[in-house]
Specification:
47% of the residues lie in helices and 10% in strands. The chain is built from ten helices and five strands, in the order βαβαβαβαβαααααα. Helix 1 links the parallel strand 1 and strand 2.
Length: 224
C-alpha cells in the first residue's frame, strides 16, 4: 500500500508538531511534512508531487481571509485541502467549502475527532463540524465573487495577497523577481477579472470573503 503524504501548513511550530504527532500515531504509514508559510508550502509541493492532503491554517502572515485557500486551489487544484482554523464562524466555514476546501476542522476539536475528519477526507469525503449549522441563506454576491476569484492564476492570487499587505508594485516585483511592468499587467488583469475599479476595492473584496460581515457595505478608495 502506497504511503500517504500530508502537509501541515501553520505558522505555529508547536501546533504543527502536535498535529503531526496526532496524525502519525493514527494513520498507518503516513508521512507528515510541515510548512510555516505559503512560500514554504510552495517549495514543499515542488519537491513532492504526490501529496495526498494539505491541512491549511487561515491566519498566517501575509494571508487575508481565504486568500491562502484560493492560492492553493489555483496552484494545485488536484490536491484536497482541509482548513484547520480557530474560527468556528458558520459563514466562514460555509464559504471555505464553497471555495473548494474538502473539509473544515476547528482547532478546538478533540484529537480523535480531528483524526476522524482527516481519515474521512483521505477516503474521498468532505467533512465539516456536525454541530455547526451551515444551512444559511445563499449569498449571490459572494458566489459571484468566488466564481471571479477562481479565474485568477496562482501568480495573480499571490499579487493580490501582496496588495493586501500594502506593498507597492515595485516591492511586489522585487519579491517575485519579475519586472514592475509584469506586476502592473497582473494588477490590471486582477481588476478586470474581479470587476472592480481599484486595487483598494480588490483588497477589500478578498478580505471580506473570509469574514462574516459580508452584508456590510464595502468602502472604496482611489486607484493607486
Amino acid at each position: 500500500m502506497a504511503k500517504q503524504r500530508i502537509v501541515i501548513v501553520d505558522d505555529h511550530p508547536l501546533f504543527r508538531g502536535a498535529l503531526s504527532q496526532a496524525l502519525s500515531t493514527a494513520i498507518a504509514g503516513v508521512q507528515i511534512l510541515e510548512a510555516g508559510s505559503l512560500e514554504e508550502l510552495s517549495e514543499t509541493l515542488d519537491k513532492n508531487e504526490d501529496v495526498d492532503l494539505v491541512l491549511l491554517d487561515l491566519t498566517m502572515p501575509g494571508v487575508q481571509g481565504l486568500s491562502g485557500l484560493l492560492f492553493l486551489r489555483a496552484q494545485s487544484p488536484e490536491i484536497p485541502v482541509v482548513v484547520v482554523s480557530a474560527s468556528e464562524d458558520p459563514t466562514i466555514i460555509r464559504r471555505a467549502l464553497e471555495f473548494g476546501a474538502s473539509g473544515y476542522v476547528p482547532k478546538s476539536l478533540p484529537v480523535e475527532k480531528i483524526r476522524e475528519a482527516v481519515r474521512h477526507i483521505l477516503d474521498g469525503g468532505v467533512w465539516s463540524p456536525p454541530d455547526i449549522p451551515l444551512d444559511g441563506a445563499a449569498d449571490p454576491e459572494a458566489r459571484d465573487l468566488a466564481t471571479r476569484l477562481a479565474t485568477l492564476t496562482p501568480q495573480q492570487v499571490r499579487v493580490l495577497m501582496m496588495l493586501g499587505e500594502g506593498l507597492l508594485n515595485k516591492q511586489i516585483a522585487y519579491k517575485l523577481t519579475v519586472s514592475e511592468a509584469t506586476i502592473k499587467a497582473h494588477v490590471s488583469a486582477i481588476l478586470q477579472k474581479l470587476g472592480v475599479d481599484s486595487r483598494t476595492q480588490a483588497v477589500i473584496a478578498i478580505g471580506r470573503i473570509g469574514s462574516s460581515d459580508w452584508a456590510k457595505p464595502a468602502e472604496t478608495g482611489p486607484a493607486r
